Amino acid sequence: MSKTLFDKVWDTHVVRKIEGGPDVLFIDRHLIHEVTSPVAFLGLKSRGIKVLYPERTFATADHNTPTINQHLPVADPLSANQLKALESNSNEYGISHWGLGHQKNGIVHVVGPEYGITQPGATIVCGDSHTSTHGAFGAIAFGIGTSEVEMVLSTQCIMQPKPKKMRINVNGKLGVGVTPKDVALFIISQLTTSGATGYFVEYAGDVFENMTMEGRMTVCNLSIEMGARGGMIAPDETTINYVKGREFSPKGEAWDKALAYYKTLKTDADAVFDKELTFDGSTIEPMITYGTNPGMGMGISHEIPNADQVEGGAATYAKSLGYMGFHEGDSMIGKKVDFVFVGSCTNGRIEDFRAFTSIVKGRHKADGVTVWLVPGSHIVEAQIKEEGLLDILTEAGFTLRQPGCSACLAMNDDKIPAGKYAVSTSNRNFEGRQGPGSRTMLASPLVAAAAAVTGVVTDPRTLIESIKELV
């Protein structure tokens, strides 16, 4: 029987099928952080259960970590306690722990791929909704709840109903200034935040085939924002070249065996999906959100639509625009920007900082705008310095912070003040997501850079003098 990529990976990991119920799925890699793991470990201790395969679990601190002065004690008591609990639990159960100060510390969905923990054809879970990031490698990756974290720690398995299958094809040549983040926001704007509910999505077409691994991770990261259980892209030479030689990647004969497996990970030509959509990539332009969920996005040159043009009801729509202080028919171009945030598991990789720097080079940070540039890991931080990007950023009036989740969800000191507007490269623009009362506009690193040097929402294409400036 012909199978999709998703079928191939899922079916080979089923330990037991429950008639009329969920599958018992074996998990290859389990990623944990300080927020969702403490209660799971308490559950293990209360039942006297050990971690079954500690070598398959990897812990890093990211959500609560400060992004300046990481050598100092964490001031917030709750954050400090959660960070300490992660360290003590990891040590007690023999789990690799990359805490503050560790050279491998960083955002869980950035360091996982960097060190080869993320591999094609694997099943990967984490107590974090944006675990879908790892699907960029042809893995089945999804977020789980605290009780499920405990289940995986104790059994290395999880009980899950098999999702339906959707394929989203995007073909054509992307225009100048259009990034993978724009592709993802465009898709979400077309499907809405619930359009892929119940599905696992495979992204296909030459737009994704031509993306770097960083770009593919950005797209898969945002799969959850249209309701999907996860997203994945078939591994190819780009994937294999990225994975090969990394610390936790297979070596020697094991690599040869793995490589043979990786090459089988593609959807069969006549495989059938439950739903299939196709978009023309040449019609996508730089995107920006105007409301309070990632589905409320539009091309940056467009005007905010009227209520009868969107789903969700007029009252809900009015509430969202009211929170943002925007109106139907408004242009986003020229809207005031108070903060710019570049980072998160969506856009905290080296490619994102190269793009940001390509716009700000030769320009200067706008007065009155606070800019937080937060690398996703120490590897990214080092690359920014080694490639000379930091010199360009410093000359333009910017400073670089230390790795962490930062202003993505404001569980640390990086909070957008109430009523202030932020252009953010993160993944969610819910009310108060980046701080109580904060107003978030999701966008790409290029749009963020354009806002950082002008102080207002600006189409980055007006600042790009040539295609060659894009990295």
Automatic annotation (TrEMBL):
Record pathway: Amino-acid biosynthesis; L-leucine biosynthesis; L-leucine from 3-methyl-2-oxobutanoate: step 2/4
What top-tier enzyme class does this entry carry? lyase
Recorded hits in Pfam families, A to Z, give: Aconitase
SUPFAM superfamilies in UniProt: Aconitase iron-sulfur domain
Cofactor entry:
[4Fe-4S] cluster
Matching InterPro entries, A to Z?
3-IsopropMal_deHydase_lsu, Acnase/IPM_dHydase_lsu_aba_1/3, Acoase/IPM_deHydtase_lsu_aba, Aconitase_4Fe-4S_BS, Aconitase_4Fe-4S_dom, IPM_dehydratase_rel_enz, IPMI_cat
Specify the signal sequence span.
Answer: none
| EC number(s) recorded for this UniProt protein | 4.2.1.33
Q: Which residues form the Aconitase/3-isopropylmalate dehydratase large subunit alpha/beta/alpha domain?
A: 7-455
Biological process (GO) annotations held by this record are: L-leucine biosynthetic process
What UniProt keywords are attached to this protein's entry? 4Fe-4S, Amino-acid biosynthesis, Branched-chain amino acid biosynthesis, Iron, Iron-sulfur, Leucine biosynthesis, Lyase, Metal-binding
PROSITE patterns reported in the protein's UniProt record:
ACONITASE_2
* Binding annotation for [4Fe-4S] cluster: C345, C405, C408
Q: Which reaction does it catalyse?
A: (2R,3S)-3-isopropylmalate = (2S)-2-isopropylmalate
The record describes how the cofactor is bound as: Binds 1 [4Fe-4S] cluster per subunit.
Query: Its Gene Ontology molecular function terms?
Result: 3-isopropylmalate dehydratase activity; 4 iron, 4 sulfur cluster binding; metal ion binding
**Similarity comment:** Belongs to the aconitase/IPM isomerase family. LeuC type 1 subfamily.
Q: How does it assemble?
A: Heterodimer of LeuC and LeuD.
Please explain the role this protein plays, according to its UniProt record: Catalyzes the isomerization between 2-isopropylmalate and 3-isopropylmalate, via the formation of 2-isopropylmaleate.
Its recorded name reads 3-isopropylmalate dehydratase large subunit
Q: What is the organism of origin for this protein?
A: Pedobacter nyackensis
Name of encoding gene: leuC
